[in-house]
Write a structure and sequence with these properties.
heterodimer, A: 4-stranded antiparallel β-sheet, B: 110 residues, mainly beta, 6-stranded mixed β-sheet, 5-stranded antiparallel β-sheet, globular
Chain lengths: 113, 110
């Protein structure tokens, strides 16, 4: 699982509901990321955290918030879900100090109706 | 905005043939990486090529990089049905997150 645990795997939300996607990595890496993947759009970065205690916006941050709870955990929150947020969400992590490979979780399939 | 753009968007070949995918990017990079994604799964790292390298091999994979043209190619030789997947290039420009292209969907027909 590339050292990443994402939950939940699948979720259906009603418009306006809130939810949090959880991500934890066990490789002690500094950088963590949340991407979304939509058909024909590839992967787009939502937010990232270069280290514990810091977060930065990516390409498509609107409608999302993140928390880097500690070095292991990086959560993504949808405060008021919209149908446009129907997507597959991937958490990833990376250790820039010992290589540049990025490790992805298995994804969370989110449908907003 | 996406930095890497893969070409073609989709590719269908017979088992045993070679598959070539291309990636173009816009700005200077430190390295370029290729990832593979099986249907319904996360991306998996395949190979990394640094900006001062021109070619790299890993098993049946061969990657080239032309920084003057800002392009890279991924060649999979003697393809197998199990190579069916989407392939993404990603550019690393330093202290910024990797930027991924939209991917090439490869279908290898047995």
């Amino acid at each position: 699982n590339a050292g990443v645990t994402q939950t939940p795997k699948f979720q259906v939300l009603k418009t306006g509901q809130s939810m949090t996607l959880q991500c934890a990595q066990d490789m002690n890496h500094n950088s963590m990321y949340w991407y979304r993947q939509d058909p024909g759009m590839g992967l787009r970065l939502i937010y990232y955290s270069a280290s514990e205690g810091t977060t930065d916006k990516g390409e498509v941050p609107n409608g999302y918030n993140v928390s880097r709870l500690n070095k292991r955990e990086f959560s993504l929150r949808l405060e008021s879900a919209a149908p446009s947020q129907t997507s597959v969400y991937f958490c990833a992590h990376r250790d820039r100090g010992s290589g540049n490979t990025i490790y992805f979780g298995e994804g969370s399939w989110l449908t907003v109706v | 905005s996406q930095q890497g753009e893969e070409d073609p968007q989709a590719l269908s070949i017979q088992e045993g043939e070679n598959a070539t995918m291309n990636c173009s990017y816009k700005t200077s990079i430190n390295n370029l990486q290729w990832y593979r994604q099986n249907s319904g799964r996360g991306l998996v790292h395949l190979i990394l090529i640094r900006s001062n390298e021109r070619e790299k091999h890993s098993g049946r994979l061969r990657v080239t990089l032309d920084t003057s043209k800002k392009s890279s190619s991924l060649l999979i030789t003697a393809s197998r049905a199990a190579d069916t997947a989407s392939y993404f290039c990603a550019t690393d420009s330093g202290n910024t997150p990797l930027v991924f292209g939209k991917g090439t969907r490869l279908s290898v027909i047995a």
